[in-house]
Specification:
Elements lengths: L9 H32 L6 H21 L6 H14 L2 H4 L15 H34 L1 H23 L7 H4 L1 H13 L5 H31 L1
Helix pairs in contact: 1-5, 2-3, 2-5, 5-6, 6-9
Length: about 230
């Protein structure tokens, strides 16, 4: 995963291209599995996962753009783009909850659907971590190591809250524009009356802990490889 601070050096560019190739291959596998399922069953049930993968690509695309131009970006540009990134960021780990759709269905083996959904969930999680790694590097470069990890932790906890809003209340990123009042009311109600909404905070804290620990593991594994080299 990228650890760029301002401009990519040649080794960092090679790392970025390698990451893009691996992510591209993994996404291709997910698309092939979905297409094969459509041909086998003549149903489009899991085609919605293609849209979810597209949404997961948006924060990764934004963070890649910011990483490539980090040394030339002013705060007045970085802040609004970062806000858009944060708005779309929960869409990436959200795909993990598509495992809720797994159940035996006619036309394909149960293990095939498991592999299909796991492939999409894996891609969503890796896109989230790769994107967050870029954003954390930008924050750390400007504000320091501690601020970078604080940003990463808060972003993952907020994404877990976003997962709850999407999975259980059926909001999406567009609702902040198309349905802001209802979205704001539901969020405020859960903040002011937390004990009336145990599912909200159970999902947020549990998924948040899982995402933070997973991200820390991935980062430590990456640092181990750098140390060895």
């Amino acid at each position: 995963m990228a650890t760029t601070l301002s401009a990519f050096t040649l080794p960092q560019l090679r790392q970025r291209y390698s990451l893009l190739l691996v992510i591209g291959a993994s996404l291709t596998l997910s698309v092939v599995l979905i297409v094969c399922r459509v041909f086998l069953t003549h149903q489009i049930y899991f085609v919605f996962l293609l849209w979810n993968l597209f949404l997961a690509l948006i924060p990764f695309g934004l963070s890649t753009m910011l990483g490539l131009t980090a040394g030339r970006l002013k705060a007045r540009v970085l802040l609004p783009v970062g806000a858009v990134w944060l708005l779309f960021f929960p869409n990436a780990p959200y795909i993990l909850t598509d495992l809720f759709h797994l159940e035996p269905r006619a036309g394909v083996p149960y293990w095939f659907d498991l592999a299909l959904i796991l492939s999409c969930a894996w891609n969503g999680l890796m896109l989230a971590y790769a994107s967050l790694c870029d954003m954390q590097a930008l924050v750390a470069h400007r504000l320091g190591w501690g601020a970078g990890w604080t940003f990463a932790t808060v972003a993952l906890l907020l994404s877990s809250f976003g997962i709850y809003l999407g999975r259980f209340l059926r909001f999406n990123s567009w609702d902040i524009v198309t349905n802001p009042l209802t979205l704001f009311y539901d969020i405020l109600n859960r903040v002011l009356h937390p004990f009336d909404h145990p599912t909200t905070w159970g999902v947020t804290l549990l998924y948040g802990a899982f995402l933070v620990l997973g991200y820390a593991t991935v980062r430590l594994m990456g640092q181990r490889e750098v140390t060895r080299s």
